[in-house]
Amino acid sequence: MNEPMEKTASGEGGNFIHTFIEEDIAPGGRFAGQRVHTRFPPEPNGYLHIGHAKAICIDFGTAEKFGGLCNLRMDDTNPTKEDTEYVDAIKEDIAWLGFSWDDRFFYASDYFPKMYELAVALIQKGLAYVCELTPDQMRENRGDLTHPAVSPYRDRPIEESLDLFSRMKAGEFEDGRMTLRAKIDLSSGNFNMRDPVLYRIHHIAHHRTGNTWCIYPMYDFAHPIEDAIEGVTHSLCSLEFEDHRPLYDWVISHIDLPAKPRQIEFARLGINNTVMSKRKLRQLVEGGFVKGWDDPRMPTLCGLRRRGFTPASIRNFCERIGVSKVNSTVEYGFLEHCLREDLNKNARRTMAVLHPIKLILTNYPQEQQEKFEVENNPERPEEGKRIVTFSRELWIEQEDFMEEPVKGYRRLFPGNEVRLKTAYIVKCTGCEKDADGNVTAVYAEYDPETRGGNTPDGRKVRGTIHWVDASNCADAEVRLYGSLFTVPEPEQEENFLTVLNPDSLEVLTGCKVEPDMRTAQVPSSFQFMRQGYFCLDPDSTSDHLVFNRSVSLKDGFKPPKKS
């Protein structure tokens, strides 16, 4: 079936899948009167990444839209690199995104006996045969567009194939010795239909079935069977399976199962400034280039979660990029834009000084300490206010003082006034330096008439800076993350490891934060005033606070306008 191409969604897009489904469930449609049923079928051989998030949102989101069901299925038909570690991580990530599979959690391996039974039935129908060509020989005899493929075993008697297939299952033959192939069309213009392999021999323990099986079904055979067994109506998958759809339909047509699911393909998510190949991500982890699958520089969902990305921001991102039949690359800046939008609305504000220098108010009483109310979030007044203390000695950012200011500089320099956020207006009177000429302290005088930052005499003070009370603050480690790569398209490099960014992580120690940060809980997110958005890292303790920068305050990305 030739399906129409939809308009490309470059940033704010529609969803052609929903159009197809609406047609299918309408009166007279192929699924009229049926409940929409989808599935998300990851292979448990690695951690999910932002590309999988798109598929998750499509599979589960489509079911939600139509009041249907979505299964979670581990497609564990290849035991080589599959592990229960990945199963648990996948379930955690999907639940974190806010989707539920209820009691519909399955393993492809649960269906191994049924798959074997259906394969035997194909042999009995004369639609499959045991082939003894080696993988190299199979490639040599694959043919081309003008020459058909060849297999000398294609006309093997049914009884002989049944016997050999049974012996394959019993473990009589070594890896690669034989395969079971579908008998379809050796001259097909679609090479996936040139008698594809359905089963191969693989003597390796499976993470669930152990050594029960030594033959394993190929994905193209297993997947449609799994969908049919589970009563899936719409099998939504990425675009590389479009050429495999005829084989999917062939399997569905020739197996004895009542359900007849429809496969619909969509373009994968491509995003710049990162890699999303599981193989390459594994190289980064196993090579020690990152600190694990959840390193905040990784595009894995656990890495993004640790960096401070929220489920809402990722779901919003996936919704806004739309669904397309055309492969394209989305800017990483758009993902950050979606996070920034969410955190601006929901993150609590706090003051933090990342590069501290002491500000001493020489005319402020030595032992005095005041309290000020500061709003927690101007976007959410219902979150109320908090109390911060103020005293003679404060911490401010090093960059908020210049002894010899450049043109346009409006912060502290000798003779200039600035507003201390929420507190007072102060005038800089000078600074103290060490033997090397480095500024070690800044001096200023406060105006007691300007409590709250007001100016009763009406004078204009243009600069406002944040601060932390030196007598009542907490120390913190702050990790500043940048792009893991120095080029926007690392996947295109001959060796992507040669373009790793050596400056992708900067660790700041001795940072100063408000004292109530000691009670913050993972995964709390905050806007550090004038700094950016930060989240508490799992490494953090009450005695050693650790924050990760999620995204900067400044948003240089311009999202596309809706058409």
Number of helices: 12
The helicity comes to 10-25%
| Integer average pLDDT | 94
Provide the domain count.
Answer: 3
- CATH topology-level fold name of the largest domain: Rossmann fold
N-to-C CA distance? 30 Å
Strand arrangement, major sheet: 12-25-26-27-23-24-13
Q: Could you state the CATH homologous superfamily of the largest domain?
A: HUPs
Q: Which regions have little confidence, pLDDT < 50, spanning 5+ residues?
A: 1-12
Number of strands: 27
Give the overall shape, derived from the CA principal axes. elongated
**What percent strand?**
15-25%
- The CATH C-level name of the largest domain is Alpha Beta
Largest sheet: 7 strands, mixed
The secondary structure category is alpha/beta
Radius of gyration: 31 Å
Any idea what the CATH architecture of the largest domain is? 3-Layer(aba) Sandwich
